[in-house]
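# nightly structure sweep
# worker-07 picked up a monomer target from the shared queue
# config: single-sequence mode, recycle default, output format = C-alpha cells
# input follows
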Amino acid sequence: MNPEQRKAAAALLRERVPAAAEIGHLFARHGYELALVGGLVRDVFLGQRPTGELDLATDATPEQVLQISKGWADKTWTVGIAFGTVGLRKENSLFEITTYRSEQYDRASRKPDVQYGRSLEEDLGRRDFTINAMAARLPGYEIADPYRGFDALQEKVLRTPGRPEQSFGDDPLRILRAARFTAKLGFEVAADVRAAMTDQADRLAIVSPERITAELTKLMLTPDPALGIDLLVQTGVAEQVLPEVSRLRMEADEHHRHKDVYQHSLTVLRQAIALEPAYGLDDDLRVRLAALLHDVGKPRTRALLPDGRVAFHLHEVVGAKITRRRLTALRFPKDVVQDVSRLVELHLRFHGYGEGEWTDSAVRRYVRDAGPLLTRLHVLTRADCTTRNREKARRLARAYDALERRIAELSEQEELARIRPELDGNEIMRILGVPPGPLVGRAYDFLLELRLEQGELGRDRVTQELLRWAAAEGIVPPGPEPDGD
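# output follows
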C-alpha cells in the first residue's frame, strides 16, 4: 500500500466508522494503543458498510480496559475476559476490545494458552489470513498493514500472514474458513495455502463438531457456497467433514450415460440459491443443504442395467438416511436434520407422477407428504433440472408450473396444508365401539386414504365407508341402543 492509498484508506475508515474516533481518543488520553482490526477493516475496503460491533485491539489488559471505560461506557460485559476480551456499549455503538495476544497451542488440542502480546504487528501476525490482518490505529485511523493484506484484496487471493502450515496447525478451523472466504468473496487460494489445507486436513479431528458445523453453516449461507465446497473437495478436506459429497465424484461409464453427479449437485445448489427470492426464501440453510446432498445416495445404489444404462434405484431413500446420519454426526439442530433429510427423500416425488395432468388425489398426496416443507420442495425440485436439452427443460418447467397451479386451485377449495379424515379418533371409536389401540390407527389411515383419493365426502358418506371397511375387516360395530319403555 503506497502513501496515497494509505491516506485514502484512512479517510474511508474515518468516514465509515466514525464511532471509533471517540473511544480512540479515550484510550490515547490514558496512554494506551487502540486499533480497528479484523473483518470490519477488510469489508470497508471492499466497499461494504460496517454492521454489528466494532472489533478493536489494544495493549491494555482487560482489567485496564474496564478501568479506562468506567464512566464512559453505558454497559460492559466480561464473558470473554479469560481470552482477553471485554465488551462495551456506548449509546448505539458496540465495541469488542481484545488485548494484543500471542497464543501458543498444544498440538493435540484447540484450546490455546493465551498470552498477552506486546505489539499490534505481533497481534496481526497470529490472524488467519492477510486480508484480515489489517488495522487502523486510533484515533487517527493510520493504516497498519504489515502483511500486505490490502494487496491481497486487490489481487483477490487468500494468503496467511505466516507459513500456512503453522497457521492451520495452530487453528485447524482456519482450513474451513479458507473455503468460506472463497465462497463469500470469490477469491482464489494461494498455492501454498491449498497445499497446507491438504496436508493439515486431518487436524480437523481435534475440532469439536459444533465448531465445524458453525463454520459449515456460514459457508452454506455465502453467496456462492459451491465455490467453497469445491475447494474442500479438491483439497481432500471434505473427506474429513462431508465425505459423502466427495464420493459423488463417481466415474462416468464409458458411454457417459449418466451425469457427473458431483458437478450436477453443485449446479443444483447454485440454481436453488437463484430460486430462493422467487419463493420468499432468504439464505435458506435447509434448501441449500438439501440441494447439495440430494443425490448422496447415488454412489451406494449405482447399478448397470443389461441394456447398458445406469440406474440408481431408491437413491432418494438411501440418501435421506445418509443425510440424517451425517447431519446428526455434525450435530446440526434436530429440526434441520429432520427437514433436510425429508427434502432429500422427497426430491424425486414430482417425477414419480410424470408430466401429464395431475389428479386431485395426486395433488393432495404431494402437498400432504411435503407438509410445511412444500415451498422448499418447490425450490429443490425446480433446481434439480440441469438437463442441457432445452426442450426437455421447458417441458419439465411447464409441468411443474401446472402442478403449482393445481395446488393453488385445490387450496382455494380445501385446506390442503391440513388434510385429515372427516372423522377423528374419538368418533371412530364411538362408531365402531372399540377402545383406543392399533385398530383405531388402522381405521384412521383408511379414512385418510379415502380423503386423499376422493376429497371431502361429508360425514354421513364417510361413516358408511368406515362401516363398510369395518365389515370387511371382520369388525362388528354395536347396534343401535334399544328405545326405553
